[in-house]
Amino acid sequence: MNYELEKYLLDHIDPEGDYLYRLWRATNVHLLHGRMASGHLQGRLLKMIVRMVRPKRILEVGTFSGYSAICMAEGLDEGGMVYTYEINDELEDFTRPWIEGSAVADKIRFIIGDAIKEAPRLGVEFDMAFIDGDKRTYVEAYEMALGVLRPGGLLLADNTLWDGHVLETPRPADRQTAGIETFNDFIAGDSRVEKVILPLRDGLTIAMKRHS
Known about the structure:
single chain, alpha/beta, seven-stranded mixed beta sheet, 7 strands, globular
């Protein structure tokens, strides 16, 4: 998408809001790979999906700077909660103040740890899950999330087009691209879910867990 078209889109959707804009700017200034944050367009989509689905409990695998967690929490009804896991403890000093300083801090539980191992121990059945963590373990994260997701629940996975690298044969050392390609092939053949890939930003897979 060229700059002019992206600007047109952003000018014709709900505004990002000052707090999220400042978080986006800080993410890109202070963190490596700042573009991994969801950003304005995807953030508004995440909020709208939450508004439509009306989940009570959301699981997020990969908090990064907290942008997507805040966006999803903005869409929650009273009493809803986002449980967001970040495996990289070096991000905590940046991310926690931004989450705790947001207007929806009471709807976010920020946890440092490996979601694949720890989320099932919560004993919580989730209505929605958003996978945006280590691409090398996307299949493992997906299996875990599907196991704690209620029938009819929604599962989203980010970066599933991976800058178009999914069309290439990954180099032997490129485990990130290989992980995305393996995940896409795996979910394409998984009869437990209905699925679609949106060509939004870097690719967003949306899947619904079947009732049987």
